[in-house]
Amino acid sequence: MAWPRPAHAGKEERRDELEYDVIGDVHGHAAALEALLEELGYAERGGAYRHADPSRMVLFLGDLVDRGPEQVRSIDIPRRMRDAGTALVLMGNHEHNAIGYATPDPERPGHHLRIRGSKNRAQHQAFLDQVGEGSGLHMELVEWMKTLPMWFETDGFRAVHACWHPDRIALLEGHAGPDGAIREDALYESFRKGSALRDAAEIVLKGLEIDLPDGMFFHDANGHRREKSRVRWWDRDATTFASAAIAEEGMEGLPDVALPAAARLDGMTDDLTFFGHYWMQGDPHLLTPFRTCLDFSIAKGGSLCAYSWRGEPVLDPRNLTWVGQPAPAAVP
After folding, report:
1. How far apart are CA 285 and CA 319, in angstroms?
2. I need a labelling partner for 275 at 20 to 30 A (CA). Which of 84, 148, 309, 321 fits?
3. Which pLDDT score, from 0 to 100, does residue 98 have?
4. What are the φ/ψ torsions at residue 57 (nearest 5 degrees)?
5. Terminal Cα-to-Cα distance of the chain (whole angstroms)
6. Are 66 and 178 part of one and the same domain?
């Protein structure tokens, strides 16, 4: 589904075709976001970042929140841009998590849609500390997150936070309003274990996962035991455990045997697809000529990355722009 084309506030003329600057996971690094927007030619005018070219707009891939030092500003910038018609904002798994963490479960009094255990709280602590847990600002921002669609598609390309899975997106689309956001009752259902909507949201916002073979497991960077691995769904050649599993510290020795059917996306087309989520390392680069991740780990000392799409049918590495974390201001 292609959502209604946004108007550009305050612009009297515009070109027929929009051009998009697609930006990966911000994770609370507003200074880097402002530097990237300025590098792309945007300037703050009338309370929002705008480009001098009225056909240029930003598409944020989600995960604006958690981890970084500037949580409120990292939401405020995209929110103001969306209000001004100069940006679209998708939901990431961290926005979905934030909704569940803050929302009481209507079917289980005294509980919330997302478990408030130590692991989940630690992941969300930076956001809670900076907005004030339970404050009016906290609740206001969570309500805004509920308005974010989980995917975007227009002539020429499509975008999602973690995985473009046609079947799961079709299921979610049946529960979306005209603006693309999932209706509130279905959004609540996306937290229910065993629900088809939960399965769909997990895949679209977190990616495809597979059980590791033969009882294999590893401990991730946070010390948590993992018996599943995320899959390189975007790579047509990733057909075995060894080639498809996204390597993490502690994972080794996976067999070169075929993936189960549920872990493959058969019939993948060459539609351009942008996504975030996967904490890529090194200088930003394209993963394939048609599908690429734009999350290059700004929250782990990496880069905040954008791809500027100008209507091309094949991705061009020259259209990547990125910035690192700005140096902290000197203490007087």
Report:
1. 10
2. 84
3. 98
4. -150, 165
5. 53
6. yes
Buried b (16+ CB within 10 A) or exposed e, 149-187: bbbbbbebbbbbbbbbbeebbebbbebbeeebbbeeebb
How does pLDDT run across 92-117, given as a tens digit for each residue? 999 999 999 999 999 999 999 999 99
The first and second tokens of residue 209, run together, are 């996962």
pLDDT per position as a tens digit, 185-208 = 999 999 999 999 999 999 999 999
Which residue type occupies 108?
R
Residue 161 domain flag: yes
- Give the CA angle between residues 102, 107, 110 to the nearest 5°: 55
Q: What is the pTM of this model?
A: 0.91
Structural domain total, the chain = 2
Q: Which of 2, 25, 6, 52 is nearest to 306 (CA)?
A: 25
Q: At 194, phi and psi to the nearest 5?
A: 85, -5
Domain of residue 215 covers: 209-264
Residue 331 belongs to some domain of the structure: no
